Amino acid sequence: MISKLLVQPAYFAPIAQYAAILQAKTIAFETQDNFVKQTYRTRCNIYGANGKLLLNIPVNKTKGQKILTTEVEISYEEDWQKNHLKSLQSAYRTSPFYEYYEADLIPIFETKHKYLWELHQKANAFIMDALQEEKSFSETTEYFSDYTDKTDLRNWVESKKDLAIDFPKYVQMFDDKHGFIENLSILDLIFMEGPNAGMYLENLNLKNAIS
């Protein structure tokens, strides 16, 4: 069990992050850091018909200036919400459990949130409800580069970071064509495993990735 967990808010975060959340006593979101591009803050990976499929949220350009992650504004110059929802429907509409969650999922893509942080909150609330888990989430009020009293997994938001985790296989939509793809967005696990997703997360061994 993780005593105190610190993570970055993300867009339908990867399976590993939600495993850490479910295995933690207390969870805090980092809200005082500066925004960094090309991380899971603005992207997630799902299992499409051609393999791993990246969904990316466009944000308003900050022109090189530093800006808090919570102050980043989402861009709607392109209809990315429609594209993301269509991609999820195409990938998972025939999955075992997608239909049970679709009604709660669609409103997330029908609301034009101004800030990325607002979308993160809505996505996290959807996931926790789908997992039937009740957890309290706090937010940082000051930025520190290091912590001695928390399990600091903020760097897990880096999309290219290789985690030392052995992910047990579960059936995926197109694994007969492309094999098992590990650590996709938590949505993949939920749509494929439904109520069993929570047990998968609670039993996932994170020891080597944390130590």
Summarize the structure.
This protein is an alpha/beta fold.
Structure in words:
- With about 210 residues, the protein is α/β, with parallel strands linked by helices.
- It contains 8 helices and 6 strands; from the N terminus they run βαβββαααββαααα.
- The protein has helices at about 15-20, 80-90, 100-110, 115-130, 175-180, 185-195, 195-205, 205-210; strands at about 1-5, 25-30, 45-50, 50-55, 135-140, 150.
- About 35% of the residues lie in helices and about 15% in strands.
- The chain has one domain.
- It is globular, with a radius of gyration of 17 Å.
Average pLDDT over all residues = 96
Assign the structural class, choosing from mainly alpha, mainly beta, alpha/beta, alpha+beta, or little secondary structure.
Answer: alpha/beta
Radius of gyration equals 17 Å
Largest sheet: 4 strands, parallel
Give the helix proportion (percent range).
25-40%
Order of helices and strands: EHEEEHHHEEHHHH
Principal-axes shape call: globular
Approximate strand percentage: 5-15%
The number of helices is 8
Uncertain runs = none
N-to-C CA distance: 13 Å
- Sequence of strands across the biggest β-sheet: 5-2-1-6
- DSSP strand tally: 6
Domain module count: 1
Protein name: WbqC family protein
InterPro entries: WbqC
Pfam families: WbqC
Give short descriptive properties of this protein.
WbqC; WbqC family protein; 34% helix; 211 residues; two-stranded antiparallel ribbon; globular
